[in-house]
Design goal:
Helices cover about 65% and strands about 5% of the residues. The protein has helices spanning about 15, 30-35, 65-70, 75-85, 115-135, 140-150, 150-170, 175-215, 220-250, 255-260, 260-280, 285-290, 300-315, 320-345, and strands at about 40, 50-55, 55-60. It has a three-stranded antiparallel beta sheet with strand order 1-2-3. The chain is flat and about 70 Å long.
Amino acid sequence: MEGSALPESRKPSIEKSGFQPDRVVFEHPFFSRVGRSFFHIHPRTGEPVMSVQIANNEALLPFAGLKREFNLCEHDREMLDVLEGGLRYVNGLRIGDPLPKEILTGEASWSPSKRHEMIAHQRITMQLVSWMSGSGDLITDPDELLQLAEDPATKKRVNEAFGEAAERLGIGRDNRQAMLDYVCKLSHELAFVEALRDKFGDIGGVQDKVHQLRRIYSRERSVADIIDQVVKLLELAVADFSGRFLELDGQTGEILSVLKNLENQVLFIRDRRDDLHIRLMAWDDVIRDWDDIEICVSYKINNLIAQFYRFLAPRFMKVDDWVLMTKLQIHAEKLENLKRKNRVLIW
């Protein structure tokens, strides 16, 4: 299947370099002398940095500067390279922390819930039932899938589908345990996708609130213009995520082909899982900020909308439009400041 192999650019950096640590460790004494340092990706520049607390101030030391200024040994330089790759999957790391599993084994450094495990398992079993019956009908609603799992008639059809699939896979109709192992391995990998799908649903919740604010801010022209831009950019964001989930679902939809080519499909799923995880991780603060907000006209909402626009624009707006909008905003701010000064002079 197209896209089943893990692209070279996405393979763990440790695998390519031969450098095989399992946690964050440095040899240069500087790293042990600075106390509780913290490695993370700078939210504005996207650059990997080491955050160090000096008195009441925080110093941010870019990795490139650390390599240049401290004449680091090969081990420490490679450790910074590995950290740069690992920080794509977690919010930050400290010295002594285990490195993310994504760059060690390809597994995920986080876990899906038991509910997501159950949904993924039931989705696969129902795909097998659909394949055996030739109906082509796929049930995707999580609640409906979980309800069917308890239905005696469904359980009987699942057992029949397991036997037929085992026969087609060449492991023997009566070898239920081997067939179950196939399904469990695939469902475990897809459980992460179900968890990410739920998180994507949170973005849909934010989108609903933005639409509500659009209605109540219809007469506040300056804010309404920004909300209009946010609505358009959000539509692009949602469409982008929807496309990525559809591609993954399409690749894993032919259930018997997936099971026949399970190892390559696991690599494909993990690659797409990591991509979605990284993209959705950037939304964590947005989702938290919009959680339980009061839908009303207020300065807090004004600031939240402006902040959200600044998050969306560089990610989803065309470069030329982004530059133009930035210039217009700067011009508008200058005019507003000038008005304030004039008001002061009049008084």
